[in-house]
Amino acid sequence: MITADVRTTYDVTGKLKKGFSDMAQDAITKLVFDGEGVAKQAVTDYNAIDTGALKSSIYAAVPGESHYGPAKSEALSKRPDAEIVSEHQLGGSAGRATGLVAVGVAYGVYVNFGTAFMGARPFWTRAVDSMIKQFGLTVGPMLRKRRIG
């Protein structure tokens, strides 16, 4: 079996003034839960729906809240034989703003990048690009206003 783990990581917390990490976490929380919706919409836009398990398996998580359980249950209800990967753990350490968006079904990578027998339907690539852009629009100005120094 082939697995893939694509991560885009921005660690800017070292540049934040004291007490600003809560605002950063609020921004990251909004970003990842909006990103979950963007990824699900991209699945629809690319017509990457057979049973609906792929779309249903997309989930977001932040400290104290994860959509993994409901996403896994819904994906398995649509495709009982789907291989669902384990919940991804949040990286980072205490005091750092963190969150993630992930695809639960193991075959998501093949749909996104394609195979020798199926063209790519880059739903995930679109979602990641959108989240990177939104990150820059949301967090970038906050950082410029709050830099140490």
Keywords:
7% strand, single chain, 48% helix, 149 residues, mainly alpha, three-stranded antiparallel beta sheet, 3 strands
Description:
The chain is mainly α. The chain has one domain. The chain has helices at 21-45, 53-57, 68-78, 108-113, 123-146, and strands at 58-62, 65-66, 100-103. A 3-stranded antiparallel β-sheet has the order 2-1-3. Helix 1 packs antiparallel against helix 5 (123-146). The chain is globular.
Write down the overall mean pLDDT: 84
* SSE order, one letter for each helix or strand: HHEEHEHH
For the largest beta-sheet, the strand count, sense and barrel status come to: 3 strands, antiparallel
Proportion of residues in extended strands: 5-15%
- Uncertain runs are none
What's the gyration radius in Å?
16 Å
Helix content: 40-55%
Spell out the blueprint of helices and strands.
Blueprint: H1 21-45, H2 53-57, E1 58-62, E2 65-66, H3 68-78, E3 100-103, H4 108-113, H5 123-146
Helix pairs in contact: 1-5
Task: Give a short overview.
The chain has 149 residues and is mostly helical. It is built from 5 helices and 3 strands.
